[in-house]
Design brief:
The protein is α+β, with helices and mostly antiparallel strands. The protein has seven helices and ten strands. It folds into two domains: 103 residues; 136 residues, Gcn5-related N-acetyltransferase (GNAT) (Aminopeptidase). GO terms for molecular function: acyltransferase activity, transferring groups other than amino-acyl groups.
């Protein structure tokens, strides 16, 4: 299996972390946020989900920098799978993809969008002493309704999001801050062994800047630490400057980055 050195540089100027660390978080992410259908083409992981359009649930994820044979043919096979699901062909390019695939996509004019950070925080350093003891919701339907509201998403996504949450195999804590029946903020904390991943973090647009995001994250981290988690991690788009600032203020540090690619002319929304 080919690897890249810790000081290697990705095509867009970022240092490559140890690939073992990347593999750990990538594998945890796939388990914590499961796609409805999973296929492998060599070590390319193809994830597709008919009920939800999220990019990370509908993407090709190359997992070995050395697996670069027959790139064009394999892209064609992936394209047919995506077409069958009515999804735009999308590659999610992490450090595990290596430079050869990125160079091929560049040569074909594929766009680059949604660069994201994977961040981590040792829970011994998390300021959870100030956190409220919050019991996670047991009612998936109630959580899904709150999550869709604070994200400003269409209610037609309710069945798909419910299916994703119901399929999470590790222990998942569903957190929602509500006031007078109105959702203010939500988060999902997926606890697996000594690792806890945070997903679906959001604050209602009208309630931002009032500390609700910080409160719900710390409650989720406190819950995870009490269950034996030692390390928290999350993913966030670089352009979400407010969220990045909050996570850094809580002590999260960047581990690596990934981005998405689509063929020339394809929408990148």
């Amino acid at each position: 299996m080919a690897t890249t050195g810790v000081n290697a540089i990705l095509p867009y100027g970022h240092a490559t972390p140890e690939l073992a660390i990347v593999r750990r978080f990538e594998a945890a992410g796939f388990r914590a946020w499961p796609a409805a259908a999973v296929h492998y083409d060599g070590t390319w992981l193809v994830r597709l989900t008919a009920g939800h359009p999220a990019k990370r649930l509908n993407s090709v994820n190359p997992l070995d920098p050395g697996d670069t044979a027959n790139i064009a043919d394999r892209i064609g096979r992936a394209a047919r799978r995506f077409d069958a699901y009515g999804r735009p062909l999308t590659f999610r390019v992490s450090p595990l993809a290596g430079p050869k695939i990125a160079k091929h996509l560049d040569s074909e004019g594929w766009s680059v969008f949604s660069e994201s950070l994977v961040m981590q925080l040792p829970l011994e350093n998390a300021p959870v002493e100030e956190a409220l003891d919050q019991i996670p919701l047991k009612d998936i339907s109630r959580f899904v309704g709150a999550s869709l509201k604070v994200h400003g998403m269409d209610q037609t996504l309710r069945p798909g999001l419910s299916e994703i949450i119901g399929a999470i195999q590790p222990e998942a804590g569903l957190f929602a801050l509500e006031e007078r029946g109105q959702a203010l903020a939500t988060a999902i904390c997926v606890h697996e062994g000594d690792v806890a991943g945070l997903f679906e973090i959001a604050t209602d647009e009208a309630s931002r800047g009032q500390g609700y995001g910080r409160r719900i994250i710390l409650s989720a981290l406190k819950w995870a630490r009490l269950r034996g988690a030692k390390l928290a991690w999350l993913q966030v788009e670089e352009r979400n400057e407010g969220a990045v600032r909050l996570y850094k203020a809580l002590g999260f540090e960047e581990v690596y980055r990934y981005h998405y690619r689509r063929p020339a002319g394809a929408m990148t929304v």
